Amino acid sequence: MPEISRFLGIIITMYYRDHPPPHFHVRYNQQKALISLQNLSVLEGRLSPRLQGLVIEWAALHQAELLENWELAKSEKPLKSIIPLE
Q1: Dihedrals φ, ψ of 60, to 5°?
Q2: Which of 15, 30, 14, 21 has its CA nearest to residue 66?
Q3: Is the pTM of this model over 0.90?
C-alpha cells in the first residue's frame, strides 16, 4: 500500500487496483478511514472530528492530484507523492 503523504502523524495511502468508488486510506494511531475522492466524505471507518477536519482540508487542496494517483493506481503505475498539510 503506497504512502502518498504523511503529516502530523497522519498517513495517507492508496492501494493498487483498489475497488470503486475512488478513495484514499487514512491512518492515525488506532483510527482508520476511507475517504471519497469525489465528495471528500468518510466512506468507511471513523476519525475524530479534529483529525477528519485536517484530512479533508488537505484533500480539498490536493483533490486533482489524488484523482490522478487513483488513475495511476488502477494502472499499477508508480504513485506521486503529495505535499503534506502545513
Answers
A1: -65, -35
A2: 14
A3: yes
For 17-44, the pLDDT digits (tens) are: 899 999 999 999 999 999 999 999 999 9
Angle between helices 49-61 and 63-74 (to 10 degrees): 80
Q: Please state the three-class secondary structure of the chain as a single string.
A: CCEEEEECCEEEECCCCCCCCCEEEEEECCEEEEEECCCCCEEEEECCHHHHHHHHHHHHHCHHHHHHHHHHHHCCCCCCCCCCCC
Amino acid at 31: Q
Spatial contact of 35 and 23, defined as CB atoms under 8 Å apart = yes
**Domain assignments of the chain as residue spans, ordered by start:** 3-74
Kindly report, residue by residue over 54-63, the tens digit of the pLDDT.
Answer: 999 999 999 9
